[in-house]
Amino acid sequence: MDIRALTPSYAVSPQITPEDLPAIKAAGYVTVIDNRPDAEIPGALHTAAMRAAAEALGLTFVANPVIGGALTEANVTAQRQAIDSAAGPVFAYCASGNRSSVVWALAHAGRMSADDLIGIPARFGYSLDWLRPTLEQA
């Protein structure tokens, strides 16, 4: 597992397993957002299995599957609501952490500068330059 803290209250990661959840909780995260559609992964990592493992540890679990190349406004709204309603730091994962970074940036459009929304994920190798026009319109 590779926790990439974009901010003190939001981190992204490539795909995790149920066995990673105790370390995520120990790191102080209270909400886990799954941005990966079940169709991309083996059954042991599907939403139901991950939700059960997270909730057994007392973590809040949010499923917000983002289909590569088919991000929706509903995805952005769901991510924003999960972040805003979290009682503490949020941990989001997908295949590489990129989609979790994209929906974070879009959820914060208008709240943070486009430069920060692009520059912060760039520290971890996520190139969000293509989002600049959208982020600047907010």
TrEMBL record:
One Gene Ontology term of the molecular function aspect: hydrolase activity
Gene3D superfamilies named in the record: Protein tyrosine phosphatase superfamily
InterPro entries linked: BLH_phosphatase-like, Prot-tyrosine_phosphatase-like, Rhodanese-like_dom_sf
UniProt superkingdom: Bacteria
CDD domains listed in its UniProt record: PTP-bact
SUPFAM superfamilies per UniProt: Rhodanese/Cell cycle control phosphatase
Residues in Beta-lactamase hydrolase-like protein phosphatase-like domain copies: 2-110
Pfam families noted in UniProt: BLH_phosphatase
Family annotation (NCBIfam families): TIGR01244 family sulfur transferase (TIGR01244)
UniProt name for this protein: TIGR01244 family phosphatase
Naturally occurring in which organism (per UniProt): Gemmobacter fulvus
